[in-house]
Amino acid sequence: MATHSEATHNEICAGVPAELKTRFQQEWVVYAVRVPLAEVATARRMLSPRHVLRLARKRSVVAPSPNHTASDQVRIILLRYLAGQQPREQFLPQESNFSTDFQSRDVAALVHMLNEERSGTRSSEANGAVTREWKESMFTTYPLKLDYDDFGHDDVLRQLLPASIPVPKAFEATGHVLHLNLRDVHHPYKYLIGQVLREKIPGIRVVVNKAANVGGVFRTFEMEVLAAVPGCSLETCVRENGCVFHVDMSRVYWNSRLETEHRRVIDAIRTLHGSTQTGLDADPRDVSRIDERKQMIFADGSEPLRDSSKLPLVTPPVAAGPNAVPHTAASMRLSSGQKPVLVADAFAGIGPFAVPLAKHGFIVYANDINPDAVEYLDRNIRENRIPPGRCTTCCMDARAFLKKLLHSDRLPIQHIIMNLPAEAIHFLDALVGSIAPANPLPYIYCYCFAHGENAYEWIVDQMNEVFDAALQRNSGKAAEEVNPTRHAGTDAAPIDRHSKRPRVDSFQLDPDRDQLRVRCVRHVAPEKYMYCVEFRLPESLARPNGSESA
């Protein structure tokens, strides 16, 4: 939820005060060279880019002053070298390439340096057409006026904040919304910081500050609006992996830093199925049968299902990238033939995995417990023109979602994505004994958080304990039953991250047999990392009552 009080409305919408902007009105004197209009391009080549002034919002080639007698035929090329002494109380934009090398020297020294450099490079010119020497009479000085618009947000905040307050460096842009995570020392200046960033960063119309950590069942967080264009909402639109996503971060979870990870998993799944999964290979009769089955599975009235789309939009598969799963496609490819490949996304959010996969021809079942997320997911399905029946959405607990999908021997799910790092490992028990004998063993992509140097061992231990506890329950060795409607995931066996497995015969994943891979995704906080665990569900876990596949 985004909040702000009526008392701060003016602070949010007013912008940076004019009296503060006047601090940035300055005038500097730089060296420049006068050249005929027809020779500007030649002169710029002679000077090379490293000598010409580079300032984002200023031109390096300007016309002389209006009272110049030949203003239409002469141009002035501004150089990066300051002339004269630096005025007090003035400062230069950091993004510029100003130099003080010739502030205490006359123009003759500058001309000598340029000619020396010119003589050293003349022999390398192919035709020797550019041979002129620089002369002092060609050089002049130029008064360069700067104002608020010529400084970047970093420069402005460095001047407006007290010297003891660091300039905020980390922020994330989602469409036109900029998301900050300010420290306590920034709070007295939060509205000023928000206004500067809104005015200085192109495309930004709303700036918000994270008021609490991501939490709760819906994985959202409270945010405070610091700056906004009047009438502009928090709903925005982003493009990722060839798809358009509508999102309101106050209602749903979204993290733009995960775009590369989304693409990696999508490409890995596509690569496993080679050229067979283009979206045009699926037999319409198979899609029709699958549609009937999913209606039968979820037609018990417990949760609504939604199908949304307009027109098909399909692209061919891509080759494996450098981050693809390091198993050969031949060894991992599922024998789907011409049949559609089914993917389950248990924590789908607004669809960063589900929508691109459906767009590429996979049959996707996308679930999220947050009704707002499912609302945006449906909208994104329509926006990206996913064909009818290609992506089915529902709003329910992930454990119940997985059990309902996998307990049907008519829905051969081949890939299961579980992107809820704080809890996903606890939902793995829903996979135990859930795969029908005739169905393939699915590949799992399970995300989690871990700390320290022994993250791999700790993650695998947690997974083994969850699987082992589920096997005990399924075999009658444990008294408690799993509550299929609880979202928090704590109905799995309690886990102590420092504990050791108490039984020598407890279940163990086999890295080779199960194609187990633990991959670091990103650094979240000091000593805290996000990981993706990829593996193929073992036969001993997958089949009910230990039955073998057909």
Automatic annotation (TrEMBL):
GO cellular component, as recorded: mitochondrial matrix; nucleus
A Gene Ontology molecular function term of the record: tRNA (guanine(37)-N1)-methyltransferase activity
Subcellular location: Mitochondrion matrix; Nucleus; Cytoplasm
Ligand binding (S-adenosyl-L-methionine): 262, 368-369, 397-398, 419
Keyword Nucleus attributed: yes
CDD domains named in the record: AdoMet_MTases (cd02440)
Catalyzed reactions: guanosine(37) in tRNA + S-adenosyl-L-methionine = N(1)-methylguanosine(37) in tRNA + S-adenosyl-L-homocysteine + H(+)
Example GO biological process: mitochondrial tRNA methylation
E.C. designation(s): 2.1.1.228
Protein keywords: Cytoplasm, Methyltransferase, Mitochondrion, Nucleus, S-adenosyl-L-methionine, Transferase, tRNA processing
Domain of life: Eukaryota
Annotated spans, Disordered: 477-507
Enzyme class: transferase
Annotated SAM-dependent methyltransferase TRM5/TYW2-type domain residues: 171-539
Subunit structure: Monomer.
Function: Specifically methylates the N1 position of guanosine-37 in various cytoplasmic and mitochondrial tRNAs. Methylation is not dependent on the nature of the nucleoside 5' of the target nucleoside. This is the first step in the biosynthesis of wybutosine (yW), a modified base adjacent to the anticodon of tRNAs and required for accurate decoding.
Family stated for the protein in its record: Belongs to the class I-like SAM-binding methyltransferase superfamily. TRM5/TYW2 family.
HAMAP family associated with the record: TRM5 (MF_03152)
Protein name per Swiss-Prot or TrEMBL: tRNA (guanine(37)-N1)-methyltransferase
Native source organism of the sequence: Cyanidioschyzon merolae (strain NIES-3377 / 10D)
